[in-house]
Amino acid sequence: MNITNDFKNRFNNPFTALKHKNFRYYWIGMCVSLIGTWMQNIAQPWLAYTLTNSPFLLSLIGIVQFTPMLIFSLFAGVIIDKFSKKKILLFTQTASLVITLVLAILVWTGKIQYWHILIMATMLGIVNTIDMPSRQSIIIELVGKEDLMNAIALNSMVFNLARIVGPAIAGIVMGYAGIAVCFFANSISFAAVVVGLFFIKINVVKRGENKETRILAEIKDGLKYIYRKKVLLHTILILAIVGTFVPNFNVLVPVFAKEILNQGEAGFGLLMSFMGFGSFLGAMCVAALSKSGPKKFIIYFVPLIVAMLLIATGYTNIYLLTGIFLALTGFFFICFTSSANSTLQLNSKNEYRGRVMSVYTLVFAGSTPFGNLYAGLFAEHFNARVGFAACGGIIILLMIPLLFVKKIRGL
């Protein structure tokens, strides 16, 4: 009987957050939208690399798409804390639909040029600067604190299920129907989220009184809040390292697949599906263990495991082995990001959550331009093998001081 109770205390139904009707509408819309997003995530870098044959110019797409997050994320946090997240998401999802539709038409008509992709990526980056932290911080208003970690894990689960299905579909579609179909599919998929949002009735969480009215003052107040709470500060610092040097797959994998493994579109898409499969299993694991809350071990030590897997990936010659290493990387990467996300939200007051999650977006997604540039330069001047090894190696070097501080302070 004690063993049964212990099992129940440690594990829970990984779909428990779906008992909330509002979250179901939101989650189902995301299920559809994210498959389209991952179809474009596969088609766009392949298109850019085909047009330019340059790893550096390929990395520039990621740079311009994520630079707006680097510049404007802190301002977005203030907006999110002041206005309805539902209305914000209705605007951002509709804007994304229009932008991707224009890109799809350019590809379909054969008029697409490299600079078109740069402009569209920049516009999507501006929209995502508000969209990403809004999607993160609305979850607690859909499920409450008790099911927050489970809901975050479910979001990761569907995101990574889409990483399995989307790339596989994209690889086939690009090979047989053309790249443009992937962009059209993504554009249409945003409508699913918009429809789901119309059915949602938000349970607004109670906010503390906020006397600050100036945007810069509120940003400063939010940063001070994070600095004072060491659990937030340390999590943010590790997120900055991981967010900069791990998710550079859009730069490294297409080059690695084409130049090292001699693969075409379908082979590239399947490699990304391997990573999505591992990530999906990681999200399932986090969802099943969500009752026990986020673990410090995952926050501090899993990044080192991910770093070693990146190095190992770079020095494989066998296609299947590369896929397995990418799957393991995805598994541990999602375990880390889900735990870090939950740690930040569960340790934030309601009136600061939007600003905290905007900093999350800043260090996790806003740092991507630096990571893409870093990985792209190594791949350009050496090769994709060295690019993977350089990303893994610098994570280990940067994590050592943080682990030393953790040991000294007994965190």
Automatic annotation (TrEMBL):
What Gene Ontology molecular function terms does this protein carry? transmembrane transporter activity
Q: What is this protein's name?
A: Arabinose efflux permease
Would you say which domain of life the source belongs to?
Bacteria
Q: What is its membrane topology?
A: Multi-pass membrane protein
The cross-references to InterPro entries, in alphabetical order and at most eight, read: Bacilysin_exporter_BacE_put (IPR022324), MFS_dom (IPR020846), MFS_trans_sf (IPR036259), TM_effector (IPR010290)
Q: Which residues does the UniProt record annotate as the domain Major facilitator superfamily (MFS) profile? A: 17-410
Alphabetized UniProt keyword annotations = Cell membrane, Membrane, Transmembrane, Transmembrane helix, Transport
